[in-house]
Amino acid sequence: MKALTRTDFSFPGQRSVYHGKVRDVYDINDDILVMVATDRISAFDVVLPKGIPYKGQVLNQIAASFLDATADIVPNWKLATPDPMVTVGLKAEGFRVEMIIRGYLTGSAWREYRAGCRELCGVRLPEGMRENERFPEPIITPTTKADEGHDENISKEEIIRQGIVSAEDYEVMERYTRALFQRGTEIAASMGLILVDTKYEFGKRDGKVILIDEIHTPDSSRYFYADGYEERFAKGEPQRQLSKEFVRQWLIDNNFMNRPGDVMPELTDEFVQSISDRYIELYEHITGKPFTPAPATDVAARIEQGINAWLAAR
Q1: Helices (H) and strands (E) in the chain, counts
Q2: What are phi and psi for residue 179, nearest 5 degrees?
Q3: Rounded CA gap, 129 and 110, in Å?
Q4: Tens of each residue's pLDDT in the chain, 314 residues
Q5: At a CB cut-off of 8 Å and minimum separation 6, what does 312 contact?
C-alpha cells in the first residue's frame, strides 16, 4: 500500500480545509468537522518526508474506539466513522491549550528532570526519581497549542491569569483529563499495557466543554508493556514501549531534533515498514482485535465516497 500523505477533497457545504501535521480537517457548514487521519508522521514538530502505510487507519480506529469507550464519563465530538481513516463530528471552539497528563517520569519530562528541573508547568517534582518511575499521582502539565512551531509548557495558574481558559472551564478540563486517564489506564491494563502519558484537547460547544480530536493513540500517548516493567525498572533498563518515541529516539540517534542546521536523515523503506508494523502492533494490543487493512486500491476515492455517502444520508 502507498501511504496517503495528502487529501484535497471538495464536499457539499465545505467552508474550509485545514492541513495539520498529520490530519486534514474539512469544515462542513461551520457545524460539522470531517477529520481525515492521513499517513503523515511528525516528530519534533516537523512532518517526516515519507508517510507510514496504515498509520492513519490505526490512529483513527484506536481514537474512535476510545471515544466510544469514554463517552459515558466525558462528552465528545464524535458522530460517526464513515471510513477507517475518517471521523466526522461536531465542530467546537477549541481551547488554546493541550492537557498533558503523565503517570510516569519519561520522555521530555525525564530529559528535563535529568538536567536538574524540579518543577514542570508549576508542578513540583519529587527528588530522587529515576527514569520511567511512576509518579505518586498522575501530574497534569499543560502546553499552549501552537499553529506552527513548538508548543510551550505553561502552568495552570498562567493559563487562568492570561485568560487563555477561564478558571471554571479549566477545572472541568482538569477533572475530565483525570477521568479519561483513569479509564484509559484501566483499559490498557486489561490488555497488558501501561498508559504512561497522553494528551487531550477540549473545546466548547453550546456552552459545554467537550473532548475533541484523537485520544489514546500512539501519536498522542505512550504505552509500556506491563510484563517486565518492574524488572526492567529495577535494573535501569529501557522499557519495552508502544509509542512513536522510538521514532524520536531514532532521529536523536541520527542527530536530528529540528535544531537550526539539523539535517533530516534518510528514512529507508525498511525503517518505514518497521514504523508501520509498530503502529499495527499497538492497535492489536490496545484493542485486543486483529488489524484488518482497509482496501488500498484507491484510498482517496474510497474515503471521498464514504464521506459523501454519510453527508448525503445525514
Answers
A1: 8, 17
A2: -65, -40
A3: 9
A4: 689 999 999 999 999 999 998 999 999 999 999 999 999 999 988 999 999 999 999 999 999 999 999 999 999 999 999 999 999 999 999 999 999 999 999 989 999 999 999 999 999 999 999 999 999 999 999 999 866 556 789 999 999 999 999 999 999 999 999 999 999 999 999 999 999 999 999 999 999 999 999 999 988 899 999 999 999 999 999 999 887 778 988 999 999 999 999 999 999 999 999 999 988 988 998 899 999 999 888 999 999 999 999 999 98
A5: 12
Local structure of 17: helix, strand or coil: strand
H or E element in which residue 24 lies: strand 23-28
Q: At what angle do helices 55-70 and 167-190 cross, to 10 degrees?
A: 110
Report field, pTM of the whole predicted structure over 0.85: yes
Q: What is the DSSP letter of 153?
A: B
Q: Where are the beta strands (DSSP E) in 93-166?
A: 93-94, 97-105, 119-120, 123-124, 133-140, 143-144
Which residues does 204 contact at the CB level (< 8 Å), separation at least 6?
92, 93, 95, 169, 210
Query: In which region does residue 300 sit, left (phi positive, over 0), alpha (psi from -120 to 50) or beta (all else)?
Result: alpha
CA atoms lying within 13 Å on the CB side of residue 34? 26
| C-alpha span between 296 and 276 (Å, rounded) | 15
- What angle in degrees, to the nearest 10, is found between the helix axes of 245-253 and 269-287? 150
Chain length of the chain: 314
Question: Phi/psi at 272 (nearest 5 deg)?
Answer: -60, -45
Task: Round the CA-based radius of gyration of the chain to a whole number and report it.
Answer: 19
